[in-house]
Structures are given as C-alpha cells and as structure tokens.
C-alpha cells in the first residue's frame, strides 16, 4: 500500500500512519507526512497533468512551490473544490480526492494532444497572427474553442462554504523562510527582547536542513539540531508559523501572509477558518527565502520523469521515495553530483552524469568517480524519448559550443541542475533594487528601500555554513535596528554565535540559457516555461521579430506569465535573449516581481466581507415598519429606502399612481430620514453659510427655512437642501441623501483651511434625526391633534418655516415645506422616537386615509413641480442658472464658493444645456432616462445631439407622461418639437416649461 | 500600506486618511479682482512635480483635521507632515531619507 518506489526506511514520513487517497479515481496508499506529489511518486505515478497549450504529458518538475506542471484539483465535497493546487504543496490526508486537469477524456488519452502535432502553427504570439479570418469568427468560434482547450483548472460552481479570517499582527523582527538562514536569524533575534515571528510556506520548518543527511551542525545531525533550535525558539516566545506564505511585501514593512489552517486536515473542525490573512507590520524584516534550482533547457526536457535534481533528492531524503530506478543526471554544477550520490545510496542506478563543464573538479566529482558513476564532462542531453514517461536520452559531447554525435542511454528518470537562482521576489516587491552578480550569474538584493535585509541563499550565500552564519548576523542586526531606542533592555547580551558545520558545499557553478543540441531548432521543443508551454525557439523567434526588451519578450511569448510567475523560467529566458541578441544579461533587464508570490485564494481577501456583510446597509428607524407593511426597497448609496408600498395585487405603476393621488388630494406619509443633516453652530454661523451657499443668509429670520444651493469652486452645482435657522447662531442644514458626507467634508475643508478664524462648529446629525414627511392638503389636520406648543395655522406657520415644540410627546423641529408642492410638513424627531412618532402620525392620519409612499412617488411629485434632484438633472457640469436656480444666487454677495467661476465666459454661452420639460406627442409614451435629443432624426450621421432626458415618469395627476431634460439652449427651444431617436423609431416631443403642475404655487400657500 | 504621521495623532495607517490635493494654494482674498486666467490658474493648474510635492491630507477617520505633507511622488513615501499654517519645511539637507 505504501507504493513500490518507497524506500524501506528513512525520510520524515510517519510509516506507522498509512493513508489512502485517490487520484483520478484510483485509490493509492501513502503516509502521514507525504505530499500528494511524494505519495504519487511512491506509487510510480509520474504522469500528473497535460500542458497548457500543446497538451503534452507532464509530471513533477520540482518538490516545492515553484512547481509549474503538477496542478491538481482537490475535492472535499460539491462546494469545496479547489483547482490549480500544486501537488507538491498538497499535504496528504486520509481520503484525499485529487484529479488532474486540462485533459479529456482522460489523462493518458487526451484528445487535445493533437495540438502537439500542430505546434508549427502555434508559435509564440500565434493568437496575434492566426484566427484572423473570417471577421467575427474570433469571438464566436476561435476564442471559445481555444479557451476550452487551453487553460488550467475549472472554477468551482458553488459558493465557498469555508470561513476566512483577517488578522493584524505587529512584531519587531519578521523572519521569512525557516531554512538554515531563517532559523539562525530567528535565534539571534530571539536572544534579545525583540518580538519575533518566523514564517515558512512549508508544513515543516527547516528548509534544506530537512534534506541534509550528510551534514552536522554543532556535532548533531542536521535534523536533530533543527529540532533543538525550534525548541529554543519556542521557549524564547518566537511565533512559529508553518504553512504560511509571505505573498506580498507592501510599503512600510507591511507583509501579507496567507496561513493555510485546515487544508491538510482530513476532517477540519467547524471552529477553524480555512485560511487566515495576516497583515504584519514588522519593525525589521529578514528575508531568508532561499534559492530555486534552475532547469536546463534541452530538447524534450518536459517528459514525465524529468525532474530538477535537488527536488529528486528531496523526495528521497524527506519522503523516502525513489523518483525511478535508473537516472541520468544532466548538470551544470555540483548539485547534480550530490543528487547522484544520495540517490545511488538510496538504491537508484545512476546511468550517467552529463556535466556541462569541461573539467569538473572538486570533492563532489571525485566522490562520484569513486562511487563508480559514469561521469561525462562537456556533455549535453540533446533529446529524450518516451510518451507518457521518459525512457531514454541522447547524450552528446560538446566541442566549441556544438553538440557532437548522439549516444542513446536508457533510463526512466532524468534529473537536471542548471544551478541556483536566489529567490529575490519579496525583496523586489519591496522595491529594493536588484544587482547583477557576474560571478554567481544571478540577480542579488542590492539597494534596500524598506527596513529589511536578506540572508543566506536568497542573497547568494549558498551552503549550510554560510547560510547559518549569514542568517545569525542578519538576525542580530535586525533585532538591534528594531530595538534601537527601545526602553526595554535586551534579555541577554547579544554575542555572535558560531555554528560548527560539517557539510560538503556544492559550489556556485551554473548555466543560464539553452544548452546546445545540434538539432533542427524548428522541431526541437526545449521548454523554458513549462506552465505556459514556452520553448527556447519561441523566445528566439520573438527576438527575430524585433522584440528587444525583456518586458516585451515576456508579453509576446507569455514566458514567466503563468501562475508560477517564472520561478523556474525567468533566468533561462533572459539567457536565451542574451545569446540571441549578443547582449549581456544585465543589459537586457529583468521583469518586475509582483505579489502574490504564489497563487492566493479569493476567500482570504474577501474575509468576512461577503453576503450580508459585503457592504454595510443603513436603515432608518422606520425601516421595520415599512418592511412589515410590505414595502419594496431600493438602495440609495448605502441606505435602503422604501421605493413604494404595494397593496395586494398592485404593480409599481398602480401603487405609485395611488400614492401620488393620495398626496395630491389627501395626505401621504414618507420616510425622509436618510436626508443628510449638519448642525452649523457658532457666532459666525451665518457668515459661514453666506460663504458656502449661493444664497444670502444674514436676513433669514430664526424660525424660517430657505432652500440652499451649494456650488463647487468651479461654479457647478454640488448639492442642495433646505436649511432652517433655529437661532441667530444655529442652522439646521439638510443635504441630499448621497451627498451628506461629501458636503460635510467640503464644509470642513473651507472651515479648517481657508477660514479658521470663523467661530463655527459643524456636526453631522444625519443619524440623530428621524424625518417624517407628512404631505398633502390634509396634512395640517393630521398633525393638529399631535403637536404641543406649535401653532400650525397659515399665519403662524407659513410655507418654509420651522417651529420647535413637541409632537406625540416627543421634542420636534417641525418644518413646514413640501418637495411635492403641497401643504406639507417634515417632522424631525430624535431617531430613537422615530418609529413611535411615525406610528402615532399614521394612527392620527387613518381617518384621513393617510397613505405611506416611497421614493418613486416622491420623484414623480417633485418632477411634476420641476424640482431638480442633484445628480439626476445635474451631472457636475450644470451651473445654477442652467437648472433654473439663478434666483437662489445672492447677486449682492461679494463672494461665496463658486461665485467667481459663474463669471466665466462659458456660463454665458447660448448653447449651454438648460433644464426644460418634455411632453411626448403620445401621452402614454414614457421616455427613457438618458435618451438623447435631436432636432432632426433623419439628419446625416453623426446626428448633432442637443441634450438628454434626465427624468421621465407617468404622471397620474396629469394623466400623461412627463419628462425633464437638459437641452442645449433649452429655454429658447420652448414651444418647439424635438425628437428622441430610439431603436423602434424616433419619438416626437414638445419642449415645455419644466413646471408641469401648479406653476403659480397656489397649493403651497394655504 | 503606508504609515502617515498625523501632526496631532501620530503615526496611523494610510486607510485613515484622504488626500486633499496640492498644498499652499490659498483661496484668493478677493476672487472678483482676478482675471479669468488668474482664476483658472487657481482652480486648475497644479505643479505636478516628479519628486517632492507639498500636499494636503485629512485624518478623516481619526481626528478629522487637515494637515500638510511633503511626499516624494517617485517613491510614494512621505518625507514630512506639518500643521496647516506652518511653512513648507526645508528638506534640501535630508532628501536622502
């Protein structure tokens, strides 16, 4: 059950804990501690997927997060289906159910594999060159077909049932990467009073220490030393976070971590979130992210069974899994030898080591020769064979840069090592400058921008001894920098700690680019980017077609643009461009590293902001009453407002007609609580109002209301609302529902920065007042029985006045005003009493047939009166005169915000858009809001457009449709006919004055 | 996420703040005395420099107060923050930080 490629002993798996799992429907066995990748290899399963473009059979390339091929779907239940997981990072659990992707009908017999035969027609940028004919076929035919053939996993179809949490953390030193450098850095920082967090993307902390069977540290085997070091860190209070990917480095040392909490559990508890997003603000950061082994680019280097050399060694040493029985090693440095010797010791036959170097020297080649391994210097792999698994290679000697005669060598495994690429992703994300190191042939961290330092292999300090020493030094430095000036004394004196390391280092030799093969390049597929199926030929083709910048080559060929972001491919692509152009690598530049380091779930970003919690919802104190009454709601900014109150069987049209009639002939009640409200108070309150609004406020008597218009400094209408003066130094300002915050910010801006000398205080009171509009000829009668201390008579309380008193036992600021053009009141009461007062008014109104109405009726009633709504009639380019509000501009005021702009020439142009009314020839036709107006619908295209419809309703009061519009030179067109071109033909409209009802205002004067 | 130092509250994350445009552009005392061109300059024309830029910020989700800042538009980092009414600090000596 353990699999036939499992070694009899060794590795860090728990052989006492066998697990059963499924892959593509077949049940296999593995052990606790396996990854899906190691468990499949143990069962001899190398074919794990099909490639993106050519559908070529693919197996594992690596053992880590850089894996480009082995993307799988893991399914827990119908809703918990996660695509595109790297099999190398999927931890095995009992019953794990995984499947391969991008294949049909099966992985072994994939119909899409014909793409491989058509490869000559699918070169780099093929989608820019082909599928161009016939016109329109791209959208209908080619694109859907190509999308179905290419691509990665399928998105889940059900809502994600899991929970994701978002957390913040602070620390003095954050260490990213728990290999030898990171562990040493954490040890150094933990020896001080610094608060330390150590994170690593793997399930087990330790990095390369977990696969160093031949090394000792302080006379202990590496894994034993590691266990002691982790115990020391735990004892020192260091927060250890395995399964945690530092995926983003943001300004001021804000690091984003993705912690995978339950994905490795067979039965996750309901109390645990699936993942946690951590936003860590770190005093200092130590990047100890290690290095990634580079593949070699040779023909057919992508067959299942061809792996990175060190990854194969990791499978053997950490998981007790042999990658095959007979391996050929293709290497540019010592790492291939280390793999060969470890594998040979593990029972894998080494057919040959092909070394790119002419004269490999040093301890590793010597050991290989001593072990009787066939070492071939100046040798390359020129091709491989095997359909679903590699079964042989061709080796050839290289002379003067050219490959010679081929010699076939049978094998079931090819292990390649092109050297190491420091993992500088996070450093680059922090906007640090990378520097090319000619000796190492690598980009290393250069100038820092953030408070961070790199340590170990990620800055080219390869080898266990170097990593430990460099890491410890970095940890000391980081802690000292973070604690500089801190009051708390260090826990112990920081003394440089030396580590006694016995290990054989593997040097720094490596290769960048494509190796020579002597074959016709048109038919040799030497892969550079496995995940996006980009070959060396594609990249040289791009350079032949004139692409010089690596940024352009990247986008044209898509190399490095897959979900692995070129972890294994970027450097080789650079090397190929460098050779093709005859330019040095650093002159070609480097593409930008961007977050996330590895793909991250959407869930972790959404957190709890989903469903009902996606966006806050604001409701008024009267909301519950409207809900119980069966109101239909509409969202207005964050508010939920009642749109209309249908009686049984009524549609919106019928309900609105009934509600309008009630307000015009009886009494209606409307919840206006969402109106923005600002209390403007202070000795200079009137002066402040004078400067902020177009209107003149000085002479407005306490107890009176005025409709106020507010402009931006550029002269365009910003907001409007009724303002009550309660006392010489106190104004009750109302704003539009959506404009409340904007208006307050506008006022604060001027008050704080332009007129700090004014004695004025601004307070948002939007949520303090419930506002109940009682509108209609019978409104006075309804309120009469409820008010105390207020005389509602016309003489005492004319239109546009305010009185303070009590209503239904509650203190009120009672406004007499109407946005419907009727006798009407707006009852302001403290929000906590809003519902009770509403119910009291409703009860008092029942004998009068009081009718609740919603925003749609409010809109119809105001449009009948030609009252504008800011943001509906206006669009940020309308001045006050354009919307017939010139009367509200205080001509005698010396200055107010926007006044100077009103004198600009543009405001006097005769073709400015002006507010007008429209009446359709056919009274039953309701225009569409936003529709354009033209003089002659038959005119030659482009037809000059004169304006647009801003509001359009069926008016029950008038028994016909009405509309408001903004029309060029509109007032001069009153009496003329215009046309609204629509798909079914133009609609003729007459231009009229925008006040359709009670133009003289008699109904307000009662 | 940037840390911004409010002159009244100290260091806070950038999500507590809103940007308020270029600083040190006072509203003219008598706008009516300005020519159209002068008024247009006040309304619309800004320096838009590459490098240090004096700008207004408001600690809207904190104390609610406006303040001024010098920010490097190349690096995005703040160089200094100061209270309204104070002159733009002379940073020629420590441009490095």
Describe the structure.
The complex is a heterodimer of chains A (1006) and B (97). Chain A is α+β, with helices and mostly antiparallel strands and 1006 residues long. Chain A is 22% helix and 28% strand. Chain A is built from 24 helices and 51 strands. In chain A, strands 8, 9, 12, 13, 14, 15 and 28 form a 7-stranded mixed beta sheet that branches. Chain A is elongated and about 115 Å long. The termini of chain A are far apart. Mean pLDDT of chain A is 94; it is low at 488-494. Chain B is mainly β. Chain B has a single domain (3-26, 41-95), classed as Folate-binding fold, CATH 3.30.2270.10. Helices cover 9% and strands 33% of the residues of chain B. Chain B is built from 1 helix and 6 strands. Chain B has one helix spanning 36-44, and strands at 3-6, 10-13, 18-22, 52-58, 66-72, 78-82. In chain B, the strands form 2 sheets. A 4-stranded antiparallel beta sheet of chain B has the order 3-4-5-6, with no helix packed on it. Chain B is globular. The mean pLDDT of chain B is 93. At the A-B interface, α20 and α24 of A face α1 of B.
């Amino acid at each position: 059950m353990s699999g036939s490629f499992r070694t009899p002993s060794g590795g860090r798996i728990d052989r006492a804990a066998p697990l059963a799992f499924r892959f593509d429907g077949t049940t296999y066995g593995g052990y606790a501690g396996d990854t899906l990748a190691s468990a499949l290899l143990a069962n001899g399963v190398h074919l794990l997927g099909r490639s993106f473009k050519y559908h070529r059979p693919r197996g594992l390339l690596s053992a880590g997060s850089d894996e480009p091929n082995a993307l799988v779907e893991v399914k827990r239940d119908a809703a918990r289906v996660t695509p595109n997981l790297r099999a190398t990072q999927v931890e095995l659990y009992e019953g794990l159910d995984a499947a391969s992707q991008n294949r049909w009908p099966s992985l072994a017999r994939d119909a899409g594999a014909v793409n491989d035969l058509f490869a000559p027609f699918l070169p780099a940028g093929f989608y820019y060159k082909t599928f161009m004919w016939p016109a329109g076929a791209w959208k209908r035919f080619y694109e859907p077909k190509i999308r179905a053939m290419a691509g990665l996993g399928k998105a889940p179809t059900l809502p994600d049932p899991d929970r994701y949490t978002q957390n913040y953390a602070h620390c003095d030193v954050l260490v990213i990467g728990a290999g030898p450098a990171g562990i040493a850095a954490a040890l150094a920082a933990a020896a001080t009073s610094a608060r330390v967090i150590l994170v690593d993307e793997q399930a087990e902390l330790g990095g390369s220490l977990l696969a160093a069977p031949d090394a000792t540290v302080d006379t202990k085997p590496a894994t034993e030393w590691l266990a002691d070091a982790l115990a020391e860190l735990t004892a020192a209070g260091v927060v250890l976070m395995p399964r945690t990917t530092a995926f983003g480095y943001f300004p001021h040392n804000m690091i984003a971590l993705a912690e995978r909490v339950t994905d490795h559990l067979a039965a996750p508890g309901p109390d645990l979130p699936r993942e946690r997003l951590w936003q860590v603000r770190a005093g200092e950061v130590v990047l100890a992210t290690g290095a990634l082994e580079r593949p070699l680019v040779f023909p057919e280097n992508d067959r299942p069974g061809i792996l990175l050399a060190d990854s194969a060694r990791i499978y053997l040493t950490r998981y007790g899994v042999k990658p095959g029985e007979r391996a050929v090693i293709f290497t540019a440095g010592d790492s291939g030898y280390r793999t060969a010797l470890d594998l040979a010791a593990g029972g894998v036959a080494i057919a040959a080591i092909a070394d790119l170097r002419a004269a490999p020297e040093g301890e590793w080649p010597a050991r290989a020769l001593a072990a009787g391994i066939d070492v071939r210097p100046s040798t390359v792999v020129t091709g491989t064979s095997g359909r679903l698994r590699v079964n042989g290679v061709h080796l050839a000697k290289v002379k003067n840069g050219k490959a010679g005669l081929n010699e076939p060598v049978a094998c079931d495994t090819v292990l390649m090592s092109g050297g190491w690429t420091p993992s500088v992703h996070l450093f680059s994300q922090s906007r640090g400058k990378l520097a090319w190191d000619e000796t190492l042939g690598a980009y290393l961290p250069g100038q820092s921008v953030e408070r961070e330092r790199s340590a170990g292999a990620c800055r080219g300090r390869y080898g266990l001894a170097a990593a430990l020493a460099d890491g410890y030094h970095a940890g000391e430095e980081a802690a000292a920098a973070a604690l500089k000036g801190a009051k708390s004394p260090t826990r112990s004196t920081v003394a440089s700690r030396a580590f006694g390391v016995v290990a054989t280092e593997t040097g720094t030799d490596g290769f960048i680019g494509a190796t020579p093969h002597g074959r016709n390049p048109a038919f040799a597929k030497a892969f550079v980017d496995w995940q996006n199926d980009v070959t060396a030929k594609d990249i040289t083709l791009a350079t032949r077609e004139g692409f010089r910048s690596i940024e352009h080559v990247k986008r044209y060929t898509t190399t490095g643009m897959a979900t692995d972001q070129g972890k294994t491919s970027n450097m080789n692509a650079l090397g190929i461009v460098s050779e093709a152009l005859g330019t040095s690598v650093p002159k070609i530049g480097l593409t930008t590293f961007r977050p996330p380091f590895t793909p991250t779930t959407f869930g972790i970003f959404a957190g709890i902001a989903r469903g009902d919690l996606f966006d806050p919802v604001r409701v008024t104190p009267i909301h519950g009453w409207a809900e119980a009454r069966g109101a239909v709601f509409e969202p207005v900014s964050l508010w939920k407002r009642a749109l209309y109150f249908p009686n049984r069987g009524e549609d919106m049209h019928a309900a609105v007609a009934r509600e309008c009639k009630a307000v015009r002939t009886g009494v209606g009640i409307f919840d206006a609580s969402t109106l923005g409200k600002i209390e403007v108070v202070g000795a200079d309150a009137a002066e402040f109002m004078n400067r902020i609004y177009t209107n003149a406020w000085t002479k407005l008597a306490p107890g009176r209301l005025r409709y106020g218009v507010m402009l931006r400094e550029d002269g365009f209408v910003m907001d409007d609302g009724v303002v009550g003066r309660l006392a010489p130094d106190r104004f009750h300002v109302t704003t539009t529902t959506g404009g409340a915050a904007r208006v307050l910010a506008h006022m604060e801006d001027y008050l704080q920065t332009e007129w700090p000398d004014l004695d004025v205080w601004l307070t948002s009171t939007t949520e303090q007042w419930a506002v109940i509009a009682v509108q209609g000829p019978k409104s006075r009668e309804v309120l009469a029985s409820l008010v105390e201390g207020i005389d509602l008579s016309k003489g005492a309380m004319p239109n546009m006045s305010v009185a303070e008193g009590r209503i239904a036992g509650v203190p009120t600021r009672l406004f007499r005003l109407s946005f419907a053009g009727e006798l009407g009141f707006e009852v302001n009461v403290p929000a906590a009493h809003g519902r009770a007062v509403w119910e009291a008014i409703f009860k008092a109104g029942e004998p009068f047939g009081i009718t609740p109405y919603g925003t749609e009726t409010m809109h119809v009633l105001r449009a009948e009166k030609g009252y504008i709504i800011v943001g509906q009639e206006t669009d940020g380019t309308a001045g006050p005169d354009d919307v017939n509000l010139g009367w509200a501009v205080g001509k005698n005021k010396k200055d107010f915000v926007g006044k100077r702009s009103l004198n600009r020439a543009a405001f006097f142009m005769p073709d400015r858009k002006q507010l007008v009314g429209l009446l359709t020839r056919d009274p039953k036709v309701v225009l569409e809001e936003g529709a354009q107006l033209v003089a002659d619908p038959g005119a030659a295209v482009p037809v000059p457009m004169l304006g647009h419809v801003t509001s359009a309703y069926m008016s029950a009061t008038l028994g016909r449709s009405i509309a408001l519009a903004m029309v060029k030179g509109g007032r001069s067109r009153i009496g003329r006919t215009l046309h609204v071109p629509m798909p079914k033909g133009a609609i003729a409209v007459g231009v009229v004055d925008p006040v359709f009802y009670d133009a003289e205002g008699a109904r307000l004067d009662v | 996420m940037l840390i911004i130092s409010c002159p009244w509250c100290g260091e806070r994350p950038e999500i507590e703040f809103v940007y308020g445009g270029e600083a040190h552009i006072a509203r003219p005392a008598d706008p009516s005395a300005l020519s159209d061109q002068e008024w247009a300059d006040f309304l619309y024309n800004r320096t838009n420099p590459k490098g240090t830029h004096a700008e207004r910020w408001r600690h809207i989700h904190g104390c609610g107060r406006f303040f001024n800042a010098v920010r490097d538009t190349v690096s995005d980092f703040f160089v200094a923050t100061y209270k309204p009414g104070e002159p733009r600090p002379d940073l020629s000596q420590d441009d490095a930080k």
